[in-house]
Amino acid sequence: MQICTLAGITVVPVISLGLGFFLVKKPGLAIKYQMWFYSKINWKIEPVSMEKEMRNTRLMGVFLIAVTLLVSVYLVCGGKILPCAAWLTGGGG
Predict the structure, then answer these.
(1) Calpha distance 1→7 (Å, rounded)
(2) Is residue 41 within a helix (H) or strand (E), and if so which, with residue range?
(3) Helix or strand or coil: residue 78?
(4) Which long-range contacts (CB under 8 A, 24 or more apart) does 23-30 make?
(5) How far is residue 40's CA from residue 44's CA, in Å, rounded to a whole number?
(6) Mapping DSSP to helix (H, G, I), strand (E, B) and coil, where does residue 17 land?
(7) Which of 51, 57, 67, 79 is the right S-S partner for 27, CB 3.0 to 4.6 Å?
């Protein structure tokens, strides 16, 4: 396996999981970072409902974690997700 592929398979999921957990644990800070970024490019944004924005940011974090884990399992199994899933559940494969 090439070193670039190995680095991508390990580094990208770690960063994605970290970002996902950040969004779940600190949604208010993530929203502040977004507002700061947009102010730098001459845009002013603010949520209509901060409560809904916090909930949606947390859900985005959960979704990012779930997708990262699914893709990681898929890559580790070499693109053969069903035999790998059977192995994980004790069904052989």
Answers:
(1) 10
(2) none
(3) coil
(4) 23/57, 23/58, 23/60, 23/61, 23/64, 24/58, 24/61, 24/62, 24/65, 25/61, 27/53, 27/54, 27/57, 27/58, 27/61, 28/54, 30/57
(5) 9
(6) helix
(7) 57
- Comparing 12 with 2, the larger pLDDT belongs to 12
pLDDT at residue 73 in the model: 82
For residues 47 and 54, is the Cβ–Cβ distance under 8 A? no
pLDDT digits (tens, 9 = 90+) for 3-17: 666 666 678 889 999
pTM of the model: 0.75
Q: Within 10 Å of residue 23's Cβ, how many Cβ atoms?
A: 22
Please tell me which residue, 71 or 50, carries the higher pLDDT value: 50
